[in-house]
Amino acid sequence: MTGNPRDKGIVVRGATFDLDGTIIGADENISPQVHSAVTELASLVPVFIATGREPEDVIMFARQLGLTTPQVSDGGAAILDPVSGRAIWTASLGETDAAEIVRMLDRMGSAFVATHANGTARTLDEIINRDIVRVSALDLSHSAAEALAHEFSGHPNVDAVRAKLPYNGLWAVDFTRSGVDKSTGISQVGESIGVKAADMAAAGDSFNDLPMLRTSGLSIAMGNAPEQVKAAADFVAPPVEEDGLAFAIREYILPRV
Looking at domain 12-90+181-256, which of 3.40.50.1000, 3.40.50.360, 1.20.1300.10, 3.40.50.1820 is its CATH number? Predict the structure, then answer.
């Protein structure tokens, strides 16, 4: 466990959690312990998922947990109503930039997924004339993901951030509109529910979680997170394989609600 003065005195009025590597592990299931802890917390304050995954996955897991607060998908580029399953806010990546990214990934031979209002696309032809909000390059080695994210570090319209894929141990790079990340997403949800990000607890395990960890009032890194992510957090919980989120909720969050 680590701490810093940023968590002192906070009253938690909402909570947001990453999905892969935080709520779920490699088996992509919510453990009974995590389910119990999340639903207990959600009975007291608004709780929502903030993930790079596509909307259908977010809705599925939010419904498993009985969450009714707006949820964040696509690395902060879309806010979803878990009851209706529809997007209530999106930040478009733009057809031109989306096509540029996908053409590059096609040349690399990289698998990808792109989210639009009516679902997901996995080929270049499928993104034509679509309002794309996020593209993710999938199944990359750590070095390839690092190089790809670095290649876009100076792009004027696009942000690129790495995220580990716990179901296979490989890496993804998520592309969103410049300035759009999980911090954007949790702030958008906060506006809709009347809770500032500074009054939220957040937990995550990868580089794409850093913006929301830095924005939230109480930040928790999972034990399976890279050292840079742990260093940015107020607390470090056990890894996802040890139901670390359940521990974090009971030890760090519930006492501050």
Answer: 3.40.50.1000
Instruction: Report d(CA 199, CA 209) in Å as an integer.
Output: 17
Which two three-digit tokens encode residue 71?
A: 């949820």
95-177: what fold? Answer: 3.30.1240
> Residues 145, 173: contact at Cβ < 8 Å?
yes
Instruction: Give every CB contact of residue 166 below 8 A, 6+ residues apart in sequence.
Output: 20, 21, 24, 25, 26, 205, 224, 240
Q: How far apart are CA 167 and CA 144, in angstroms?
A: 18
Distance CA 142, CA 3 (A): 28
- Encode pLDDT of 121-160 as tens digits: 888 888 888 899 999 999 999 999 999 999 999 899 999 9
Task: State the pTM of this model.
Answer: 0.92
